[in-house]
Design brief:
214 residues, mainly beta, Jelly Rolls, 6-stranded antiparallel sheet, 5-stranded antiparallel sheet
């Protein structure tokens, strides 16, 4: 083997054999010396007995973590979102005070802006498991029927959640859902209304998810 060996240098989007000449041959048994400092904007990756290292253009060498040394990611087992944290294109989505309600009211859009097909979304990182989804809001004479979606697919247990009532009243709806670990997007979509309802209003004070068992 030759007395010098070229080491791979890494730029943000380019890999090339351009920097880092080693002074000694590479073998599986010997420790490799630190290579030549790379040009500005480049990094050199090289191996030593205790793992892989990178050398920056500032001359700083640091050891890269091995896969076995990276801690396991732990996802939350609970999540809560208030109405003002919901994402929606419905105009004038705002808090309406109701003194008798928990938290003092809920977020709704005026009946003039509510329509069939309106969507309300939120997202969360969660651990895998069986969850209960809770939706605190207000039933009323202008409320619509809501279908729930998870990552773009309808949730069977969350379908046809009718929020109509002959008189306004605080209400908590709930249903079960099973999640895989990771990032999830939830959506509430208005899908029609009760025959006696006058509109397609959605009322959200708080939505929260709770794992069946910690």
């Amino acid at each position: 083997m030759k007395k010098s060996q070229v080491v791979q240098a890494v730029k943000p989007d380019v890999i090339g054999w351009v920097q880092g000449v080693l002074k000694y041959p590479i073998t599986t048994q010997e420790q490799i010396t630190t290579p030549t400092t790379p040009d500005a904007g480049q990094r050199v990756l090289y191996a030593r007995n205790d793992g892989f290292y990178q050398l920056t253009s500032a001359g700083v060498a640091s050891r890269l973590a091995l896969a076995s040394e990276i801690p396991t990611l732990t996802y939350p087992k609970r999540f809560a979102v208030m109405g003002d944290e919901i994402t929606t294109a419905v105009a004038n989505w705002a808090f309406t005070a109701v003194a008798s309600m928990q938290y003092g009211g809920s977020w709704v859009a005026p009946t003039a802006n509510a329509a069939n097909g309106d969507e309300y979304t939120f997202s969360a990182w969660l651990a895998a498991g069986n969850y209960t989804v809770y939706h605190l809001g207000r039933k009323g004479t202008a409320q619509g029927i809501v279908d729930w979606y998870l990552d773009g697919s309808a949730i069977a247990a969350g379908a046809n959640r009718d929020w109509y009532a002959a008189a306004g009243a605080t209400f908590t709806d709930s249903f079960a859902v099973t999640l895989t670990a990771g990032y999830h997007v939830f959506k509430l979509k208005v899908d029609g209304k009760h025959a006696s309802s006058t509109d397609y209003v959605v009322s959200i004070t708080k939505i929260w998810l709770k794992l069946a068992a910690d």
